C-alpha cells in the first residue's frame, strides 16, 4: 500500500456528524450469544437463561450504505463488521503474515477479508486494518448514535476507499458457487 495516496484514506468528523458508511467505531460493545440460549428457544416454557450474556468490545466499521442511514428508525439495525490491526491478526492467522500473506491480502485474494491503509491522523493513529466481512454484526441505530456521542470525534474512511470496501462487502454475498 502506498504511504502517500493520491486521495486521503481517512478524515476526522465530530461526534455530532451524521453516521456514514465507513465510519470507524472504537471499542463498541457486542453481546456474544451463549450456546445455552439455543436450548431456551426450543423450551416450551421459555425458562430463564441462568448465565449472563457476555459482552465483548470490538473495533468496527459501518457498512450500512450512507444513503440508507437517514431513513432508519432508531430501532432499525446498522450493519457493522469487525476490523483488526494487521500486526496482531497476522500473528494469530499466520497465513496472512510474511510477504506472501501480505501480497495476497493487498491483492484481495482472501475471501471475506479487506485491507485498509494505516491511519496517521493526529490523535487517531492506527496500523493497517483487516476488515472481516464474514463476521457481520448489527446494532440498533440508537445504540450506535449513543456510542458516537460519547466520543469527541471519529475517523471516517473516505472515497474512493469507502466504495472499494462496499464493493468487497457486496462480493462477499453475491458469490456464485458453480
Order of helices and strands: EEHEEHHEEEHEH
Number of helices: 5
Main pleated sheet = 6 strands, antiparallel
Poorly predicted sequence stretches spanning 5 or more consecutive residues: none
Distance between the termini: 33 Å
Radius of gyration: 18 Å
Number of strands: 8
Average pLDDT over all residues? 91
Shape: globular
Structural class: alpha+beta
Walk me through the structure.
- The chain has 178 residues and is an alpha+beta fold.
- It has five helices and eight strands, in the order ββαββααβββαβα.
- Strands 2, 3, 4, 5, 6 and 7 form a six-stranded antiparallel beta sheet that branches. A two-stranded antiparallel ribbon has the order 1-8.
- The radius of gyration is 18 Å and the shape is globular.
- It starts with 9 loop residues before the first strand and ends with a helix.
- The model has no long low-confidence stretch (mean pLDDT 91).
Which characteristics define this entry?
178 residues, alpha+beta, six-stranded antiparallel β-sheet, two-stranded antiparallel sheet, 5 helices, globular
